[in-house]
Amino acid sequence: MRHLVLLVVSAAMVACTAGGNPPDAAPTWTAENGVTIGDPAPRKDGQLRVLVYHDMEGLAGQDDYRTFNYSHPDFYPKGREYLAADVNAVVDGLFAGGATAVTIVDGHGSGNPNPDLDPALLDKRATQLTRDSAFRQYVDIVAPDTYDAIVAVGMHAKTGSQGFASHTITLGMDVWMNGRSITESELVAYSWGRHGVPMVMVTGDDKLAADLQTMPWLKFVVTKHATSASTVTLRNVDSVHAEMKAQASAAMREIAQARTLTVKEPVNAALRVVLPARLAPLRGVPGVTLAESGDRVDFVAKDFMAAYDGVNALIGVARLAYPTVQNEIIREHPDSTLILRHQRERLMERWFDVESGRWSPPPPPPAVPGRKFYGAQ
């Protein structure tokens, strides 16, 4: 398999295990096989507008997956505190380095109908991006002359990297573009790179730091060291926050060193899956290039958006296998025979009612007046 990027950098430029790049380091790199490294679009009117994405798996002080999951009410509030602390440290550094406006967008989607980042805990100098209807945070807000730099906080490594809660987009998915498995951070960088906006800083665990050697200009702060997908060795939180502030400030002062990252088109895209996701049901479908192993579909897309949409369509198929875990739980239940019988009966009744014209899907829930959407909710 071809590799997307072959980067040649000085040792100083990849010193990202405990901070970012030295301010006087001169970037030297080359790229091959499917990626273009370019210059940012010119800034206008002396403004330095920064969009901060946040996830929740790569936060400082966090070592329990329940803190990023809304369905765990005894743990999730602590996760929101971790999130606000990390974001505020970065926001403080961005303004100290010369940012004129900082906007936050939710890139996590814990299941909370409200933003994962509690507005009451956010640094008052920053604003949260909202819309009146749901939007895809990685692509629907991407437009020219809206932001000058992108930062990502609390991010995670990609599927297969053995980072804390490592995945891409959702459980068991591994996204490929032009011959290389990519992280969500790179997905964001590719998307904004189409309009000349560079990603300048990322925070997350040490496995993500290794994944992002593709962007040597990044200021990267390691929040913790992953020992498995569910365990970590934590760093001192105060030290991490001090480092976040310093590196965010440096990212603003040294923004001239940043570069954009875009995929060459057409895009050779693929989705590889691991359990509990599955693509095997696509075997035999005409026009689908399914690997012999049944765990990967490759396709060619005309551009980044087509590749992104295609990958997400395949993810929709692969997620259909998630209920196999639910079925395991049902089979282990003392009343499993009764539950499975009711399930089969409901399936038959639904079929009969649809065929007889007695049933139609329920209408979507009514819109909540005044509700705002903050991103991946």
Question: What would you say about this model in short?
Answer:
By secondary structure, the chain is α/β, with parallel strands linked by helices. The chain has helices at residues 76-96, 184-193, 206-211, 237-253, 304-318, 323-332, 336-355; strands at residues 35-38, 49-54, 101-106, 127-128, 149-155, 173-177, 180-181, 199-204, 219-222, 224-226, 232-234, 260-263, 267-273, 289-290, 296-301.
Describe this protein's structure:
With 377 residues, this protein is an alpha/beta fold. Helix content is 26%, strand content 18%. Helix 1 runs parallel beside helix 4. It has 3 domains: 253 residues, Rossmann fold, CATH 3.40.50.10780; 55 residues, no CATH class; 32 residues, no CATH class. The protein has a 6-stranded parallel sheet with strand order 4-3-2-5-8-9, with helices on both faces. It has a 5-stranded antiparallel sheet with strand order 7-6-13-15-14, covered by helices on one side. The N terminus is likely disordered.
Give the tags.
single chain; alpha/beta; 377 residues; disordered N terminus; 5-stranded antiparallel sheet
Q: How would the global form be characterised?
A: globular
Total of DSSP H or I helical runs spanning 4+ residues? 7
Low-confidence segments, given as residue ranges, are 1-31
- N-to-C SSE series? EEHEEEEEHEHEEEHEEEEHHH
CA gyration radius, whole angstroms: 22 Å
**What is the CATH architecture descriptor of the largest domain?**
3-Layer(aba) Sandwich
SS strand fraction: 15-25%
Number of domains: 3
CATH topology of the largest domain: Rossmann fold
Number of β-strand runs: 15
What structural class results from the helix and strand content? alpha/beta
> What is the CATH homologous superfamily assignment of the largest domain?
Dipeptide transport protein
N- to C-terminal separation? Answer: 35 Å
